[in-house]
Amino acid sequence: MQTNNKSSFSSLKTFLCDPFRMFGVVSVLLLLLLTVAPAKDYFSQWRSYQRQYLNLIRNRSNAVTLLRHFQGGIQQIWIPQLGVIDRCQTCHVGVTESSLSDVKEQPFRAHPPIPHKLTEFGCVVCHRGQGAATTVSEAHHSKMAGEEPILPMRYIEASCGQCHHEPLEGTPKLNRGRLLLARYGCVNCHAINLPDGSTIQATDNPPPLTHIADKTTREWIYAWLKDPTSYSASSTMPNFLFSDADASDISAFLIANSTSQPGDSMAYPATASGSASDSSAGAVLYGESFCASCHATQNAAGNLVGGDLGPELTNVGTKVKPGWLMAWLKDPHTYDPTTKMPQYRWTEQQLQTLTAYVASKTDPDFVANVHLQPATQAQIAHGKKLVIEYGCASCHEITGIPKPDNFAPDLSRVGSKPLVQLIFLPGMEQSLPAYLAEKIRRPRAFGPSLHMPKYSFTSSQIEDLTTALLSFTNRSFTLPPNLQIPAVQDTNYRPAGHAGQLMANINCLSCHRINGNGGTMAPDLSWEGSSVQKPWLDAFLKNPNTLRPTLIRRMPKFNLTDSERTVLTNYIMTVYQTPAFERDEMPLSGYSPDLVEKGRQLFYSKYACQSCHMVNPNQDKGYIGPTLTTVGARLNAAWIFHYLKDPQAMRPETIEPNQHMSDEDARALTAFLMAQKTISGQGAK
Amino acid sequence: MIFAMLLSAAVSGCDHKKALPPSLTAKATGAALVVVSGDKQLGSPGSQLPQPLILQVNDDQGNAITGAKVQLTGPPGVDFTPQQILTDDNGQATFKVVLAGIDGRYELTASSQDAHGKPLTVMIPEYAAGYQQEVGYEINEKYCSRCHNPDSTSEQVSNYDNLAVKPHRFSDGTIYNNLSETDLTTIISHGGVAMNRSALMPPYGWTLNKAEIQGVIAYIRLVSDPPYVAPGVVYQKP
Fold it and tell me: Is residue A109 less than 8 Å (CB to CB) from chain B?
């Protein structure tokens, strides 16, 4: 072998020694070398895509137009103020050709319609990736330091959230994710500062623990700490995966640290509970008071029924002491001045009945196996240490323990966290979205000493949360500030004076919004005084029967005294007025029968209002909108008129369509509606 | 010798190339394959559908068959967990479906075999909503579905029964595919009367903006069954 090799080598040597031959060989080599660059170019991925594209459009009916639009070579969008140099269109040739929206093969499909132009934002602002690259692997999958791979489609709504901090119609995942961040109190520990200067505010209302021993037992606290969801599936408190000993020590500390609050417990007669008649009376009172508007309970099928403004009550009797419960029902503000729960004015008898009923909702299994030894000083001290270490005071008020600052990492830019800073679990996908999702799903898998608790989110909730987190990017801070669209922040409006105190006491703002502050469960009351007639309002507060028979959530009866009602009615009628019109600019009655008749015809034929509203219960059936059988005794004429002209101007959220009515039609319809003072078919009074 | 080793390594390397999941063997066969639930769902591109897809294998009497093999196939990019499965004690096969990253209609195929080896198949449409269709879906939920969708839930009672003239479900392709873009825009913006139809269909042109109306139309086109084919994009296969 070796000899053979040697001889061929020497013959090569003699061959090359001839200068002419040498020259020939060298020039051939040079020529080959020179062709490398153009050949590389010719065979490049993007050229091949452009050739495929030309093939694809050749057979389409608008081939000529498409061909005219086609420009070969590298294509680039350059937007200096956004830092965008995107060459994506080099391969995504048809991305602006709306006629290619049926094409399924990438990279040729038209971009689906969105409210922004490609030339205004380019591609990477939303899709991430390396815009300047001209190969698929570099553009889509680069993991080099400082470079981001493209964002998987399932999280694409995150990109809208870089500028849009308000909920958008087309981004349900992002909207839900942001709500979850607030609802589950993530932001109690993790600060999230948005580029517009606002922050995300928690909405979970964790209760103060200052007087917890009045409310519940150490055994309940222990079992709750061990697994909040086994007490109530809808709990927003996460599981800190405490050991038995740690849970026992924390419960010992919380009980020992609790001080008694005068008035937050009352003598509850032992005889009050138990009797069957009482329990049915309790159920009736619970129903009449519309507790379910805010509190859910599990029904026999295991489904939660009721609102989520207050805690779930399925097993509440296992948690609270009856004496505390009765005091709470009497006036919840004594125990928690910031509670959203209204003070109902129940009689002593009603309080007992309701306490017995609510206390009977128990799950004895929950604490059955909890047997705790009396707490030692060492346990209490260790419990306190744990409470500090796990940041309990980030959410709960605890005597002697201040709320820690920056307890957990700031997440304001977590959506741009570089891959090199992430530690992945063995076998998991090495990407930021996968990391975030896994951190939420199994926080302690990333290290046993971590303090991040475990929530029991569904996989779609985790996707929503990950989407929201991915919207907090570096880019959102570097984009021009005029692009930022802030979310509407609640004002700090509070009604003033005696009426204001009363409204705080029955917590109107828990459900109603007034002047930009308050809940959204019930109608906005900012202009209620322009909308309704005073006698109706007074009667409604006395006995609120719902206007919409199909609603589950209803206005409860607070049992206000006559004088309280007068204060409230006067305040609402005078203060809550729209600047858009004069309340009394149209009369409440006295419209000519002709006008009323004209209105009737418009109602039933031209505008077909009966498809959603009922005027004559014997004949009309619509019930999407409120019943109008006695609307002439409820609403102000001027309100009806202006509402008909532009419903959204009076109530921005209403689904009543704007019918673009003439003044003449609106006036006739107002006359017809104002004539509905008593229920038709039952005879006028 | 080295050569032989290399060769065998290369050959065995080829063997490893793509390990298909081991094929399941059916323990039973049925006479019909039906969808129980989870078809025609609205999802978003690249995401798992909100509900699982459940199919059932029945015998010719309509009784559920346990142990029949059901497998799913679909367009590229669509992911199923599992890809094939034997029906459970209730004769049902449950799949998680993740749609590909492109919005639009997806046609999945579920298949099984009868006792004679004849294939039983059902086509299952699923929809991935892009931004515009998602806007349309939200508009539909807020404004339209109470009249156009006859099904009631405890949170939202349908108004369909109360209407003297009946509207149609937006998925009814036999109606909507015959309405052009212009027709739809007209009736949605100016109400039923604009097209000589009932005034029970209200006008939305002063309530919704142009993008929202286009969104509803895009949504109607997406969920249409039979599928909507836009005019003018006909093209022959090369």
Answer: yes
